[in-house]
Records
---
Amino acid sequence: MLGSSRSVTAIVAALVGIAGLSYMLVKAVVPAAAVSPDAKAALVEFAPDGKLKQPVGYRTWVFVGEPLTPNDLNGGAANFPEFHDVYIDPESFAYYKKTGEFRDGTVMVKELTSVGSKKASSGNGYFQGEFTGLDTSIKDSKRFKDEPGYWAYFSFGHKYPLKAAVSKNPASACNQCHQENAKTDWVFSQYYPVLRAAAPHSK
Amino acid sequence: MLGSSRSVTAIVAALVGIAGLSYMLVKAVVPAAAVSPDAKAALVEFAPDGKLKQPVGYRTWVFVGEPLTPNDLNGGAANFPEFHDVYIDPESFAYYKKTGEFRDGTVMVKELTSVGSKKASSGNGYFQGEFTGLDTSIKDSKRFKDEPGYWAYFSFGHKYPLKAAVSKNPASACNQCHQENAKTDWVFSQYYPVLRAAAPHSK
């Protein structure tokens, strides 16, 4: 049916070209979205002076847990007022699910909110009000090679307006407490059933 | 270069076929992964008898908020003991961000955990213990056309082991309270700063 071997070559070349294009198309569309939903776009950024910029997109990261230290149980002024919404970036969560470990590059965000109400139709208790603060921790064996466990801690403030970019806190301010009291690699997994359930071989 | 118009027709057919295959490949790979990370795989399933099976994958959905009704503030036995971790499926969250509305098909999950500790290095308060319960609400104008607001409510139990599949609760058990007390379309947005911040034109 075909006129010559040159024709066949041309057709094969065309087919290969289209197949290649299709492959590139799939490659281009999939990885950023499929492997780690918001992680690529949302992971942290450092300013030229080394300060950490406010993380973005973390509210669609994986929720880890929510300790509550209300002001009314802490002499009117909790160290972390009051609800602590804690998130981990999705890729690091996927890694943790496989290994039970926090990979190099793990980012965790702790967003603080006030207590808005102490009574609702579901009962007496504590109900979230407004956002008040934002803290971030990052494990990075290169950038933070001198921090214990390679974890660095940042606070954008516990009262709005938050700072746009901040230097890491001294190890004595945050790292030391995490090192001494957190159960799993500087992370308070003892208060995070989501992490315990996700770890391999957990109950 | 080509021998006949039949050859050209055959080649065009082949190219169109490959292009079509490529398109199908892209379609097959992308939507489940890119548009809504875990939603396609994780959205709810009904048993043949109409009961709702336990939702899966919701711990990587979008965290909405966490009311707390501890037993110790509710006569030793809260109606919803004790932390309520509330999630919304990612596609419905994306729709809500655009419109401020809960789309038909919205699924929300409320996972209950016990209070594990009332004192930690961060202060006095409430810290999560273990998973204890699981509730789900679904807005569906076809399946639940007779429910007020089209919202149906399911409880898999507030004590482990949970039930594998359950019928919806009568409207008087859950829907009525949501209808009367929740601020936004049967959802308690007054306690969910994440939702308020995500809605269009919100502060």
---
Amino acid sequence: MDYTTIRYDVEEDGLLLLTLNRPDKLNAFTVEMCGELIDAYNRASMDDAVRVIVVTGEGRAFCAGMDLSVGGNVFGLDEAMAPTMDDLRTAPDDPAVLKGVRDTGGRVTLAMYNCRKPIVGAVNGVAVGIGSTMLLPMDFRFASEKARFGFVFGRLGITMEACSSFFLPRIVGVEQALEWAYKADIFDAIEAQEKGLVRAVLPADALLDEAKAFARSLVKDRSPVSIALIRQMINRNGAQATPWEAHLTESLAVFYTSMADGREGVRAFNEKRPAQFTGKASQMPPFFPWYDEHQ
Amino acid sequence: MDYTTIRYDVEEDGLLLLTLNRPDKLNAFTVEMCGELIDAYNRASMDDAVRVIVVTGEGRAFCAGMDLSVGGNVFGLDEAMAPTMDDLRTAPDDPAVLKGVRDTGGRVTLAMYNCRKPIVGAVNGVAVGIGSTMLLPMDFRFASEKARFGFVFGRLGITMEACSSFFLPRIVGVEQALEWAYKADIFDAIEAQEKGLVRAVLPADALLDEAKAFARSLVKDRSPVSIALIRQMINRNGAQATPWEAHLTESLAVFYTSMADGREGVRAFNEKRPAQFTGKASQMPPFFPWYDEHQ
Amino acid sequence: MDYTTIRYDVEEDGLLLLTLNRPDKLNAFTVEMCGELIDAYNRASMDDAVRVIVVTGEGRAFCAGMDLSVGGNVFGLDEAMAPTMDDLRTAPDDPAVLKGVRDTGGRVTLAMYNCRKPIVGAVNGVAVGIGSTMLLPMDFRFASEKARFGFVFGRLGITMEACSSFFLPRIVGVEQALEWAYKADIFDAIEAQEKGLVRAVLPADALLDEAKAFARSLVKDRSPVSIALIRQMINRNGAQATPWEAHLTESLAVFYTSMADGREGVRAFNEKRPAQFTGKASQMPPFFPWYDEHQ
């Protein structure tokens, strides 16, 4: 797939730099960008040359939100339909439902949630609407001091999207999520850091280098299989109602990794040398994925 | 319904001031107050003249807890019964179960949880037992410097109620919830703020005005349909095991609002003017509620 | 059961001091220690002489992790098997699954999760791998200034265990859990406190006394039945998708305790005297446990 709204650049040490690339439109989100981002995250998941992903925006914005200047239903929805919850549950991939009903932002964030590689955000400027909500399934978020955020849906008479009603309260708590969503204001990087939305606010010219260095530090000398399992286990098991699902998946994960990269890891530990892992995220243990990848 | 234990006053800008009104009893909670609060929250949910709710107490207390001076089972329970989990699951609205077994505090907080309007607490004084636990399903909590709190059930040999075993760990974390519940001590507004139970501690004479101004700021120039959806989506989807439920409900919510208040919202945005929303919380999109309102 | 890897000492006021006791091996975890810890937590649960548990390590370490110096599969797993999620779900207690597949750390932390008594950690030194993850289901964690922590599985090419993929993100958030798990570094007690893993960092010679005093303060003059119910309700209901399960369990818990220790509690409150509770955690109300104790 050739991309026209994003760039996909694999750099040294397995770092994929994913760049939103419509700078003349402040990288505003479109249905086309939705498709390209889903493709890129799925491709990175299976590409063993990619170990970790950094996401940023070209030019002065990160992403100014959905492009509201397009004609027809600006969200790309098919207004002739009358969908129900039952329609979505039973046939989420029916083409009419997939293209005419399902939230484009959510389709992107579900692909990010399912990704086998850690995702680090480098928010270089304005990140509003889907620009803010596509940050939430990332593992880590860094902001430039020029970054601006806003969950502005309430101001437009619409609602949360991109699975942000799941992700946002889990990151900043129910109360802060409600406040940002009700008020629908734009806020700066300092507030984002104070409330836990981003981990650090950096000078604009240091942002990308620091985000990249951090990203590389996560995966250097680590097993890609172990990293992929840890990402899915923490994201998924931490939201379960009891520890039982964690116990089942951890049992199988330790079982299968202990006979693969774990064997080398223990040997290297006992021999006091760095481990040489050979596992690949494209070839996961037989119980993976243990979940419905829709979900 | 005429209220004898509370007051229901709709003020300008759609602000409902709900006042616990047994000042000579420090607004202690009774079975009668339970019924009146449920009625008031359900009524406010469907009353389009109400946009946001502020809750406070008359006199020097917010609510001193269950009135333990009444005769018989002080919690209003029917001691002749021998209920099981199965009884509650299969027939929660059987009159004998509803009146003789189900926790009165929980019936109130479930009505608050299901409410279509944001709820802001103005805790003017002592808030102990159900006085503390009825604060938890509120969206936002302000406290006077005279406020006192206490999850004192353990001291009485009973347990958490009013769904506080769900709400409290979600607000302050499992560890703090366990500490307050085990110790069962009274604590002051500063501790409540430091631990995240209240968002601000205010001078007693500024409390109500500040809580009201904050409440009005949440809903001014906003779509009541959008606000109601955001409230239910953040509260409910943030507690799901995966983002999938969020994706389904968000897809339908954006779909239907984009053809109603969202159309005006986008048009107003493009025309750089304030939006004039006409949606009503009493008339929600066809997929609403997507959940069992018991739950 | 006689213990060879731990000590089980019941002290005054119902305090059980549980000590990891392989000081010459830095209390490294073995399959034998797994069995003894499960036995000890289950025994403490049913032993009415035990009101609260403090856990510490003998000598200079708390627990240096799984003992990686043993022969064969160092995790004690049966490499001849090829287990699936279905195997674990349908027959978790099949001896071959229980001994050859299921994570030993998780079997311990599930016993801790199900325990009827509060658990307080006194982390006296190095706590790495299972040494860190066995802290997570504790109610409260104190650390000596000499304590060190590390979720080091990634470094070994394996994954989270001991249900830490459930517990850790619930305690410190998804982002911090991912960071510690990906990086797999050792960190000190100050970082553990700043990130919310431990509640206090104490001088080494004050640690155990302070942890014991805190533990005793939780249960003094409290009903053991009420304490056991509060522990299970906050841990379990706080992770449910809605408040409904909390309402059901709280209704039954208040119902049955109000006719037992709650009656004495209310009477003592009205008579302004300390309550004399007679309930026992070994004899819980009829609806207990309302959950599958596997989970």
---
Amino acid sequence: MMKDKTGTGETVQLDHGSGGIASNRLVRERITDRLGHISGTAPLEDCAVTDFPNMSKLAFSTDSYVVDPLFFPGGDIGCLAVHGTINDLAMRGAEPVCLSLAFIIEEGLSIYELELIVDSIGRASDKCGVPVVTGDTKVVPGGSCDRIFINTSGAGFLPMERDISSGNARPGDAILISGSCGDHGITIMTARAEMSLTGNIQSDTAPLHDMVKRLLNHIPEDAVHVMRDPTRGGFATALNEIAADSGVSMEIEEAAVPVRQEVRAACEILGLDPLYLANEGKMLLIVEEAHAGKALDIMRSFPHGREAAITGRVTGRDNPGRVTMKTSAGGSRIMAALHGNPLPRIC
Amino acid sequence: MMKDKTGTGETVQLDHGSGGIASNRLVRERITDRLGHISGTAPLEDCAVTDFPNMSKLAFSTDSYVVDPLFFPGGDIGCLAVHGTINDLAMRGAEPVCLSLAFIIEEGLSIYELELIVDSIGRASDKCGVPVVTGDTKVVPGGSCDRIFINTSGAGFLPMERDISSGNARPGDAILISGSCGDHGITIMTARAEMSLTGNIQSDTAPLHDMVKRLLNHIPEDAVHVMRDPTRGGFATALNEIAADSGVSMEIEEAAVPVRQEVRAACEILGLDPLYLANEGKMLLIVEEAHAGKALDIMRSFPHGREAAITGRVTGRDNPGRVTMKTSAGGSRIMAALHGNPLPRIC
């Protein structure tokens, strides 16, 4: 819990979810006015109407955020909810247009924490240039949810002919990751365990739409086959899903996958594999080999892409769904999807 | 809780939310495959891409559903989540294109109940002709949410020039309601109190987009000023919000507002006013007086619009935001927005 520096001790009450005058005031004073001041977003409506470009397809995505703790090194549930949904749109090659914002709040949440979260949403939305245009707020009795859950959905547009999807990886393609693996997952796990670690471990939560835009501006569109943000299940699980969807096998060089030293050390203490931990500001890119170098340069031109790396390649179609790892010791093993070992409420 | 007729006793486990193999199986076998079989919806993706008409504006809406109980006379949380978001789109005059579907599930929810809910979503989506195209599933530990919460967001399109909104009511307009008030609210309250009432009290949950379409096809578009589904806060609160947004006063004839006899009787027992109770399949229409009769005929041509009525009119601009009620006894009183009296988890 964050210390209430306002000292008012105000909390969200059941009446704030009734749909009457109290609801209206909570939403206006604590949410829509604050968002408007920060991000210039127009008042949130039950249903928003916005412009949409001609000759475009609609991209549409949704995610609920139930992360525990609400505030963690590098971010909080608010900016995470903005970045996560923008990234889901970006991974299809879409340009995000607008977001929806739905809160489920437990009676008794401090208004101070709610405002911190709303402010974080406003700043993230403003920085990304993607406005929140519609919303909903529900309040449930104490014990019926854990403080606050957030759903953001997003709409975006993309050119009619653009086709970037999990099923498009082809033998010969290079597999890139835009930075180090496991930062978000290990941050949440250590924050929850109240472990105090040396080094600067923090969530990588960040928007990826600008990186995608630059990639698509500089690489022939039909050479970009798959983009994916490896969130829950991490790098390893995302590659397994892509390999299965595309009917291909893949080979990854263990030594090429970037993992920060502090993350590796914390993972050893907790018995976790960083390649299975959630990332919230990283993208996988599967691209024709001839363009891999250019893509790497573009990724590295962004602050959150400095550690980008070419980690392996799509090997063939004989063993569809199989991802193997060439270990640093020179061996080879199957890198399966996440199985068991639940890490609940990581995002 | 619904009796598990499959007798397997299977429940949702934390591992189902990990993003790994168990998550993948739960989502595929219990959600996407079932939805696909029922509604023909394509597999749900992290981010869906669908066609969107040229020369249209984008309508975008979101709602979370936390209703308790999950199953109630006339419906359940699943069909409610489909109808509610379709209705929010329709109230702006938009044609719904697609829905997103996000579950937050408490560890221990029976798979049987999850499947009942998914099946209800599939049938409602199919019947409305609005596919679910993208989704998300989170699982939280026991005690961190109450069984299941659902968020649906929706995208729709509308012609560039269409402008139906809460701020457009004008003096002289007629105020119509498409049917009886309070049915959903009283159903939930009596179900939760485990009251057994005589008469057939059930939720009015229903989609309204077809009624809207027919209204807009037969009445000049610029004569249709406001549409609103009076959900939380009910008929009275919705009118107060519209009166404030439009800067007008309104007068309602108490005797003209349809309330079913069973609902009125249950409200008297519970000390509730049906005009402040949630509706989930009713619309308010504020339309130029000359077209009110035609609008009434159109509403009444639908099974769930048979009790539609002209309930009052927009009176002027001298007392913006004031809604008065001419009582059956011949008096007149202010009909304020809902204040206090929280009815949590009504939708």
---
Amino acid sequence: MSEAHYELTPIGTVRSPLTDRAAAPKQGYEGSPDPVVIEFVPGVLEGLEDIRSGDQMVVLTWLDRAHRDVLRTRPRDDPANPEVGVFSTRSPDRPNPIGLHVVEVLSTDRGRLQVRNLEALDGTPVIDLKPVLPGVPDG
Amino acid sequence: MSEAHYELTPIGTVRSPLTDRAAAPKQGYEGSPDPVVIEFVPGVLEGLEDIRSGDQMVVLTWLDRAHRDVLRTRPRDDPANPEVGVFSTRSPDRPNPIGLHVVEVLSTDRGRLQVRNLEALDGTPVIDLKPVLPGVPDG
């Protein structure tokens, strides 16, 4: 690891019925509890003002219950799968445990966004939110 | 802003001819200098072992020259555009300046990945690398 580091400040928190990592679906498309709420901190509300229901957004989270010392893993925690380098997987356990989720905004109410398709444990810090750009396959 | 914070440790660095933010294209699809190299730190090489040329990957970067106190901005820095909340844009200037790039791997040579389509300034820290999952529009 490099000596440099950078500091993330959460902009919000996931409020979800998912509280147990073992019970979480292994990939978002297998089902996430809908809707899930993101509660934003008061200091960033101005930045949310142009988000509308129906928007497709990328949510970046900090997977605060992940293990950061993992470099090889079995995809989906399945012992039948061979171990592979962690950067070829979406495992939460990785040096910088950033979650990437494509969600649909269902409703906005100032500091609260209801979204569909966010698989993250209750209390997970949200660190960024970006639009999905039409025509650009970069979620 | 919340009081909590989390520490990112770079896993690599972008080596690119792009050195000047003013000269950078405003969106990746308008053209990025190809190929660009990502140099990884020795401590994470095991995690890269299953990446192959041709793989489509999501690269997350820390846009270390961005301004973190921006909540409203004009898309693409164009004065003709109305100001909007920063979370409805891909502007690098945002509370946690994380860049999201979908790249194609051209070649791998242990700690060096040559990629196509990475628009980031020379020296930009790389913080994560994930596969693009087939069938899942989540970059």
